[in-house]
């Protein structure tokens, strides 16, 4: 039988540790590693408001405390995963690590877990946590008396305090047999509450409670904290990376998480894991405001996120766009690990929604921009997950695709299989030169090969090196879909964009724009083909900037 519980960690940085290094390490390296574990359901940081030390406490709810004795968790505390930065940082922190088993819980009828609240919610910022640690005489009867008081009187009376959300009681975990037994009570309150008021005073001053304090309790420590940070499985800390005293660039031991400090445009790269076990790498950069809206860029098939490089530069060159964070990610199918289930546009929309959730992007704070397969992905995400999306821009894409597409894409896969190219390091099959040449020649206008071949070359290389398995699997998404009925019920504002030289798409996308409920504009990018953000990044950035200015002011 699983034993739910709590990992309770107090931290007091020493004077030698810069705040920026402390927060970057905690929010980027330490916390997200734990939130990726399936038995860690949430993670929070709170900061003391009572003027006492330790100043910080972190809480992690655990579904089964026995998991903390097993290799998956214990590896986090070994050199296998601990980086040199973590060792040097933790050497400058006084850490108190306590393990507790959950005993009892009571919550308000309208209680909403903190992890389900957006960080921008008024009900999140300023949330109060009161932690009370109590030790008692080692007398089972006295301990039972304390438990009864909590259960029958104290929690009941606290529930009458305005702003009370939840009270939980824990005892020292059974897996921590060497630790002295104590009780921990956690009381959660809304930012506006009745702490110190009549109902609270009444709960704190009863004959039963007074007797316990004199006859049962040997020590009591009460701390008052305020919400500081909610962890997610995806690192998103940019604020600290803009400071001059932060340590970096930094990377995890496996190289999958990296930071890029900058006073103007800091960035972090890492990954999320979908519910079916597929890792989706991403790059987050831009505004250091942790609550800034996010612009998400979704790729076409066969490319990586470097297709957006020049656009992102042009986008941030507009001063009003420096209020945004920008997220790029590798679409399922870029790499060989693409899962076992069939890939379709609904699954790709789910991947994007999962990324937004992992990054804790608030509702309606994500603006999605996608091209080709990414174009229909962002459109479909706005249709299926409208609560998450503020606006979308779909580029060079279609609202439907016939079953006959399957043969055409199958023929392209066959070209790759016949060539037989492999990655020189992994020896895995890749798309290869022939399809890369044919594809990019189709995507770009002839003029670009004369005027900017150095811009097109990295795109061709991305196509050439795409996993063949990932390509063959993910290309299913471009076959036999139709979202026109969904578009008729759309609630998220959108814009459609096409390269002027992208075949018939400028004409067919005009129909897409009219099919969207409420109508939408179609913008044409001159001297561009299938990837206008590559060939004409400045013009594309101007179109995006104009649209987002209408959305966000």
TrEMBL record:
A biological process term (GO) from this entry: antibiotic biosynthetic process
InterPro entries recorded: AB_hydrolase_1, AB_hydrolase_fold, Dimeric_a/b-barrel
Species whose genome carries this gene: Penicillium crustosum
Family indicated by similarity: Belongs to the AB hydrolase superfamily.
Residue span, AB hydrolase-1 domain: 307-543
SUPFAM superfamilies: alpha/beta-Hydrolases, Dimeric alpha+beta barrel
Source taxon at top rank: Eukaryota
Protein name according to UniProt: AB hydrolase-1 domain-containing protein
């Amino acid at each position: 039988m699983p034993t739910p519980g709590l990992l309770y960690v107090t931290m007091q940085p020493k004077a030698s540790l810069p705040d920026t290094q402390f927060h970057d390490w905690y929010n980027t390296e330490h916390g997200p590693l734990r939130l990726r574990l399936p038995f860690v359901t949430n993670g929070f940081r709170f900061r003391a408001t009572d003027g006492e030390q330790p100043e910080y406490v972190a809480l992690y709810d655990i579904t089964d405390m026995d998991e903390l004795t097993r290799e998956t968790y214990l590896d986090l505390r070994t050199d296998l995963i601990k980086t040199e930065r973590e060792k040097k940082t933790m050497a400058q922190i006084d850490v108190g690590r306590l393990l507790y088993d959950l005993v009892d819980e009571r919550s308000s009828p309208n209680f909403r877990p903190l992890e389900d609240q957006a960080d921008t919610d008024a009900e999140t910022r300023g949330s109060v946590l009161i932690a009370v640690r109590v030790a008692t005489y080692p007398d089972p009867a006295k301990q039972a008396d304390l438990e009864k008081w909590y259960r029958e009187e104290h929690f009941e009376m606290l529930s009458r305090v305005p702003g009370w959300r939840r009270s939980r009681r824990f005892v020292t975990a059974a897996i921590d047999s060497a630790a002295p037994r104590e009780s921990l009570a956690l009381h959660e309150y809304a930012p506006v509450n009745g702490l110190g008021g009549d109902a609270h005073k009444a709960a704190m001053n009863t004959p039963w409670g007074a007797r316990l304090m004199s006859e049962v309790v040997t020590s009591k420590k009460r701390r008052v904290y305020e919400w500081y940070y909610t962890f997610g499985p995806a690192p998103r800390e940019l604020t600290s990376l803009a400071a001059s005293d932060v340590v970096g660039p930094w990377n995890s031991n496996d190289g999958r998480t990296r930071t890029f400090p900058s006073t103007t445009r800091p960035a972090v790269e890492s990954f999320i894991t979908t519910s079916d076990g597929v890792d989706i790498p991403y790059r987050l950069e831009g505004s250091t405001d942790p609550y800034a809206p996010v612009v998400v860029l979704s790729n076409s098939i066969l490319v990586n996120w470097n297709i957006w490089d020049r656009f992102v530069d042009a986008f941030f060159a507009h001063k009003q766009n420096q209020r945004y964070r920008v997220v790029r990610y590798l679409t399922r199918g870029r790499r060989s690990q693409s899962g076992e289930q069939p890939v379709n546009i609904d699954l790709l929309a789910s991947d994007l929604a999962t990324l937004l959730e992992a990054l804790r992007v608030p509702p309606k704070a994500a603006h999605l921009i996608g091209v080709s397969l990414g174009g229909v992905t962002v459109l479909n995400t706005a249709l299926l997950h409208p609560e998450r999306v503020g606006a979308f821009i779909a580029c060079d894409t279609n609202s439907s695709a016939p079953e006959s597409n399957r043969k055409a894409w199958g023929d392209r896969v066959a070209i790759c299989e016949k060539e037989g190219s492999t990655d020189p390091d992994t020896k895995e099959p890749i798309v290869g030169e022939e399809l890369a040449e044919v594809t990019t020649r189709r995507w770009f206008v002839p003029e670009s090969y004369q005027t900017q071949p150095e811009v097109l070359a990295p795109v061709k290389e991305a196509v050439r090196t795409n996993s063949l398995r990932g390509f063959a699997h993910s290309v299913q998404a471009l076959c036999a879909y139709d979202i026109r009925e969904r578009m008729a019920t759309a609630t998220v504002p959108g814009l459609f964009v096409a390269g002027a030289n992208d075949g018939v798409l400028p004409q067919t996308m005009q129909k897409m724009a009219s099919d969207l409920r409420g109508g939408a504009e179609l913008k044409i990018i001159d001297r561009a083909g299938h990837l206008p953000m590559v060939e004409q990044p400045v013009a594309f950035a101007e179109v995006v900037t104009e649209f987002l200015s209408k959305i966000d002011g």
